[in-house]
Amino acid sequence: MTTKMTNRLMLLIFANLILVSCQEPTLQKESQYEGPPTDHIISVERAGEMYDAYSQRRVPVIQKYEDSIASDSSKFTPTRYVEYDLEIIKQYIAYIEHEAGQANVDINTLRFYLSNYPNSAKFNNGDAVKYPKRNSFFVVPTMEYEGKNVGFSIEEIDGKYTAVPINRNTTMKEGNQDKAQSESSGDLNEAGFFASNNTSVQGGGNSLILNDGTMVPPPGTDDFGNNN
């Protein structure tokens, strides 16, 4: 190899090293392990006690009610857990962080709302009901809004990604953002989830609500002693 070719090769290697060193590591945040959230981890024994308390105080009530309104003689078995693939959870976290970043808003918390699928084959919008009658939950990210911690979705207002409270007495329309955000905090009704008829994201916006995991029973194996 001639001296000229060697110099060219060294120059290419040096240029590649500079390019690599200038790139921000995409997995840097994930690699920073800071230990467990010690104030929020409970023992297996405590989880078992709480599971048993639900079995004694909630499951019979749910069963009795659902059986009393059943149109046939089938027996109802309440849901005991909902599970998601870990990759789905990672994808969800990345999604809501991306959407919040686009709207320049910080996510305060994740709310887990207890819920119930309707006793119907379809939702009002025509989508199929995956688990009719079964209890479930859905996850809502929250932000600070007029001094309160509220669930939010993303809407495009005047061509700009905007985080808006889910629970609003009046629909926030395009071009009316400032007026809506200047209303008193009393307009956010904590008793209900949707305060207006705006029960879906409007204006081509993005919902941030997670649901439709795999529900058990049926069928499945329970970690605390019940097999279905």
Characterise this structure:
With 228 residues, this protein is an alpha+beta fold. The protein has two domains: 41-78, no CATH class; 81-228, no CATH class. The protein has six helices and six strands. Strands 2-3-4-5 form a four-stranded antiparallel β-sheet, covered by helices on one side. Strand 3 (135-145) and strand 4 form a beta hairpin. Residues 23-29, 169-192 and 195-204 have low confidence and may be disordered.
Protein traits:
228 residues; alpha+beta; 2 domains; four-stranded antiparallel sheet; two-stranded antiparallel sheet; 6 strands; 31% helix
* Strand content range: 15-25%
Please state the CA-atom Rg, rounded to the nearest Å: 25 Å
User: What value does the average pLDDT take?
Assistant: 75
Anisotropy-based shape: globular
How many domains make up the coordinates?
Answer: 2
Give me the secondary-structure category. Answer: alpha+beta
**SSE string:** HHHHEHEEEEHE
Helix content: 25-40%
Number of strands: 6
Catalogue the unreliable spans. Answer: 23-29, 169-192, 195-204
